[in-house]
Amino acid sequence: DAKTTQPNSMESNEEEPVHLPCNHSTISGTDYIHWYRQLPSQGPEYVIHGLTSNVNNRMASLAIAEDRKSSTLILHRATLRDAAVYYCLYDSGAGSYQLTFGKGTKLSVIP
Amino acid sequence: EPEVTQTPSHQVTQMGQEVILRCVPISNHLYFYWYRQILGQKVEFLVSFYNNEISEKSEIFDDQFSVERPDGSNFTLKIRSTKLEDSAMYFCASSPQGAPEKLFFGSGTQLSVL
Q: Which of A1, A22, A108, B8 is placed for a possible disulfide with A88 were both Cys, Cβ 3.0 to 4.6 Å?
């Protein structure tokens, strides 16, 4: 079963920031936190990942709590194209990649 | 941007038949994966493949499943004798290195077993 906890759904207005929370209380010190999203009828798409420090890329920002038991994906300006299911995952970084996807958060963006 | 390509996009087969799902990973990637998603359910890991051998597999990946990289570009998933419960969307993915690098997923092959 999924090792992370996310809200089932969230809504955002277009062009407003969105903060998607995730709890991962059983994470270990070497586990990376990953976020993927899945648009309708498509495969998962990488969004961002991090270990301890906050991370930024062109798609989003990842804010990681100091105790690493939670993180927040930040979309700075939601667009209609950002409507998707967002998955928070973590792995051991041990060299291979057995990601465990949960149910994720379904984000709806309102025009 | 380079893409992972999967063919066919839809595959219909009869129960008990063999199917081969095909994937062309991104050319300079070294790690290859298969995941599946049964309709309305979670994305599930099946297998990872590196250096021409399986590096990890899940409980789902039983003896009915096999993977192969027959040449320098293709990566295939074979289901030897399909069952009704194999009906799912199958996603191929690749990454340039192992974890924690990002995975690039294909658009999937929808397998329907009748």
A: A22
